[in-house]
Amino acid sequence: MKRQFLAAAAMVAVSVFVFHPSPSFAVTMQPVLDDAEMSAVVAAAKQDMAARHLKGCIAIDDADGVNIFFEREAGAYTNCNGSALVKAKAAAEFQGATVDFMNQVNKQGQTHLLAVPDMAPLPGGYPLTVHNVVVGGLGVSTPDGDTDVLIVAKAAKALK
């Protein structure tokens, strides 16, 4: 009798968990940046940089701020790699253009942003979106930060 009760209880427990999953089993679907889209963004950034006769670094991070692409062009200036990488990470993680963070520090006096880990208040980082969902961040670093802002904004449009 005890075995039959335990078997019945086990079957009930299994049916509750298998046929009535808790909300913790829910899966959230969101778009991600695929290879073709990433290549289109990189090509657009390279084309714009070439048209402006600029050499630099290009970085792309996924939505979690993990680097998935990096390239340093031959003839790029010293340490453009570090700058491009932090710009891409900040744009992805904080889902905004890094020039806006720079303006918050410089024009609005929000110097506390300098203490936020992974925050990069530098011009040249831009969020990448698919269907209005941030799927990553683009960071471009050339000798001219103002031009970096224009390059990333234009390159990000390659996703649309």
From TrEMBL:
SUPFAM superfamilies: GlcG-like. Gene3D superfamilies: Haem-degrading domain (3.30.450.150). Pfam families: HbpS-like (PF03928). Keywords: Signal. InterPro entries: GlcG_carb_metab_protein, PduO/GlcC-like, PduO/GlcC-like_sf. Residues 1-26 form the signal peptide. The keyword Cell membrane does not apply. The keyword Signal applies. Coiled coil: none annotated. This is Heme-binding protein.
